[in-house]
Design brief:
The chain folds into two domains: 3-191, Aldehyde Dehydrogenase, Chain A, domain 1 (3-Layer(aba) Sandwich); 193-320, Aldehyde Dehydrogenase, Chain A, domain 2, CATH 3.40.309. The protein has twelve helices and eleven strands. The strands form two sheets. The chain has a six-stranded mixed beta sheet with strand order 8-9-10-7-6-11, with helices on both faces. α8 (204-215) links the parallel β6 (193-197) and β7. It is globular, with a radius of gyration of 21 Å. It starts with a helix and ends in a 5-residue tail after the last helix. The chain has 357 residues and is of the alpha/beta class. Helix content is 38%, strand content 15%.
Length: 357
Amino acid sequence: MNKSERIKAFVELGSFLSQFTSEDANRKQHNLNSTYYDDFGALLDRVSNENLWFTPLHVHESIKGICAFLQENELHKWVARYAVSDQNTQVKVAVIMAGNIPMVGFHDMLSVVISGHSFIGKLSSKDNQLLNFISKLLIEINSEFKELIHFQSDRLSGENKFDAIIATGSNNSARYFEAYFKKYEHIIRRNRNSVAVLTGNETNEELEALGRDVFLYFGLGCRNVSKIYIPVGYNLVHLLDNWKNYSFVTDHNKYANNYDYQRSLLLMNRIEHLDTGFILLNENVAISSPIGVVNYEYYSEIKDLEVHLNTNTELIQCIVGNTIPNAIPFGKAQEPELWDYADNVDTMEFLTQLKSK
């Protein structure tokens, strides 16, 4: 299978998945529908029932993000940046995937296969069905994917005979990965969070859009904003007034339980905070915050803040705002481009340099 055929297959996959980008029925004409449409719809319902963090809204939002990747012009633009093999290689790449949000490992899977390598996926127990089904769709589109895409439930070890590994996990698991897979070419990802920088000049629309960066996926993603930097004297009440439309998050029992627990901790420890009834704002220097909490910190000079952010790049996935260089616009944190790589490590550059052992 050559490079163009791989791209064509993923475009076709995107066309099928585009029917599932919202909870409303959006069935179109597609040659996969007779066999897979009903089964995929049933799987989405089942996944939401089995993992309560994966609400129907969030599953469909994840699919919407994947469909944005699978636009033909975007795929060609992305692949053109690299020396991608025109034929399948003999390189085998193992990928250990996280399970914090639905199909969070799709980009790694896409990158490995588009590179022409063989993909060996170790799915998280929290998200172990969706990508497996997507692989079946790819195989139906082009049977050669059957030799390129494999999933396994057993723990990955050297006996699996792969040439490189990409692993995503907590800081603790990353230390294990570093030691256990040190003899392989690797990318090891750790905990990261995203931050927002406000100046006080934002519109109400921008502040409401920031709420999407905070609340989508209940804040479980590394691209979710967990901390906000605000200028001295900033009116936080004005910010919170623009987040009222997100109060529905407490309708979700798991989120509500986390929110109640964090609220109790703040009250018992007599820590001053702001409480909207669905989110807690806590003045805290930490970048990472628990579910149900957003940390905030005041700054005096934007230049000093830029220095601070630059010294903490290893903790930050992305920056949202309109003043910091290379910041992401409000509301767009969970809408990365194909070339917006996790931990700022160019996955495709890594993959295209690999050679079979």
